[in-house]
Amino acid sequence: MAMAMARLTAVLTRGALPPPCRRALCSGAPLGAELDAAVRDVVCSGSGGLDEVGGRLDRLGVAVSPALVGRVIDSCGESGGVGSGRRLLRFLAWCRSKDPGALGDEALDRAIGVAARVGDLTAMRIAISDAEKDGRRMAPETFTTVVEALVDAGKEDEAVRLFRGLERQKLLPERGDSVGGDGVWSSSLAMVQALCRRGHAREAQGVVWHHKSELSVEPMVSIVERSLLHGWCVHGNAKEARRVLDGMKSSGVPLGLPSFNDFLHCVCHRNLKFNPSALVPEAMDVLTEMRSCGVAPAASSFNILLSCLGRARRVKEAYRILYLMREGKAGCTPDWVSYYLVVRVLYLTGRIIRGERLVDAMLESGVLPTAKFFHGLIGVLCGTEQVDHALDMFRLMKSCGLADTRIYDLLIEKLCRNGRFELGRELWDDATKSGLVLGCSEDLLDPLKTEVCFKYMLDLMDTSQEQEQDFGVLLKQGAEGRVFLSTFVGRKCVIKERFSKKYRHPLLDAKLTLKRLNAEARCMTKARRLGVPTPVLYAVDPLLHTLTFEYVDGLSVKDILLGFGSNGVNEERLNDIATQIGNAVGKLHDGGLVHGDLTTSNMIIKSSNNQLVLIDFGLSFTSTIPEDKAVDLYVLERALISMHSSCGDVMEKIMVAYRKASKQWCSTQNKLAQGHGYAVFCLCGVVITWGELGWALSDSGRARGPDMLNARHEGGRGVICTGPDVCNGHSSWPTSKP
């Protein structure tokens, strides 16, 4: 009963109230600010389906006017969003149903531009279709926006079809004399530039070909040629870019710095991908060509080269280019980008001190850095775990007055993740005093809430550095490790330590070092099982990254052969050493093991029994491929030729022993001969070699098949008999040495 009385009271109350005041549609009365904002909210950022737009606008009771339509279109363009384009079209359809004359001629054109800018290609296509049905032309600016949106979205074919369709319907945009140019020129040029901007130079050439009569006069010719050059360079086709550049030079088209920079960018990135060694020579050729055409290279030109050199980690060449710029020998002075590119590659390759000196030299020379300069370098230092140097760079950044929120956030999080909460708190307090609002959470400063990612790894690295002096007396140091003389349970031993590389990430460095350490231990153990004399492996320490070996007392083969060169060759001992080398390598290869660094420095002759011992299996790996074994022998051959040529043909003696020790010498020697660029196949099966008396049968006698190559001989080449019918039973062989 009470509920019924409440409903009756509500009905009577509504009947007593006057009806709400609603604005008459199409009245043209000025809208209030609140109502105007409500309309824009419904169209631009309202929720609900498209069908609800008209109903909500009807309930608002707004009056349609060109001013309202213009404000709504502008608001949709500012708010963005993919769906706003279709809601805008629904709003225009609603306005057309209320007052067809209130839209004006520019409303649909502006809506097309807004849909293109916000990326709503569906709404853009619908609006363009409506404009074509009404026979309306797009404004030149709108057409440019449309084709650029299509090309940027990867729909260059659709952009070309749209251009051709508008051309057939004679609806291409037109420009009056006050703007300059006619309709065909402005549309075709916009089409060419939009395509070339994304590297679609081939499609752009088609447009130029179809409109060559309109584009064959200045200034269109120059603009089109420069656009095509840019398009081919973005595409990465240096050959076509060179063709266009030569055509521009022959036709007298003025060439500027942007055109040459585009071509230089294309050449450098092609060489970066396929031939990094040609980066500097070919870039210098382009810079010389620039000067011959009267275009002075700028710092931006050299920055293109420096960027590619940095990506290829060619540190010396990059540093040399910067030095020439600083000394004034390059024709221009470096800017902060030039210094940044070189310092960055120095940091990435572990040359921290040199990089810091270069930064100081930049500031002394008066080159002013930007915040981006410090952001990049501090990011590199943090990424390579050089946090202390990153803090030094941050202090320099503060002295230049360029410290901002981003760099505080980066350093605070990095310090806390590494367990250095005190320094993180200091930076937090410093930023707070400076009035900066940090983006990182204060929970980072709480050790109970922050996970320390690299604390164990940093402690491990510190432990390795502290115990470094306990390994013993340093004997030698190479690129991958250090060798110490020490003792092991009372025995004289050798400790090989694989040290960490500072330019690598700690986790990656630890994995690589441990993997290579285990591989060396496995290969050495396997070689010993195959009967190859190697030092006895005493211990492997995966934490300190060390291997402990038996100490071999003796001279290296390198020292012995060098002694032969100065004191005369001891043929008996030389033959014994060569035989032992051939036997050891043959056993290795038959067991599927490749040494990887077969040089005379990695072979020791024991003083006690003159036995050969192979050492340093750091580059060893398992392989049964003949090419890998041939490379092993080729490395040994080059080492003998370069260091011990005075000892005669040692390699021939080694190969004689290798053929006796290895059952698979046939395929390996075949690949080795091919590596020398020489291969003649035997049909009758007789192997011929060059000796002191000329051509003669080799010691191996008959070959085992038609694919057998001859044995090694003096000079690195030989010949195989081509059959009795050709050689007359081996009586008419060549009389000259190959």
UniProtKB/TrEMBL annotation:
Q: Name one GO cellular component term.
A: nucleus
EC code: 2.7.11.1
What's a BP term from Gene Ontology annotated to this protein?
A: tRNA processing
Q: Which reaction does it catalyse?
A: L-seryl-[protein] + ATP = O-phospho-L-seryl-[protein] + ADP + H(+); L-threonyl-[protein] + ATP = O-phospho-L-threonyl-[protein] + ADP + H(+)
Q: Name one GO molecular function term.
A: protein serine/threonine kinase activity
The signal peptide here is none
Q: Protein kinase domain spans which residues?
A: 469-738
> What family does the entry list?
Belongs to the protein kinase superfamily. BUD32 family.
Q: What is this protein called?
A: non-specific serine/threonine protein kinase
Q: Which organism is it from?
A: Panicum miliaceum
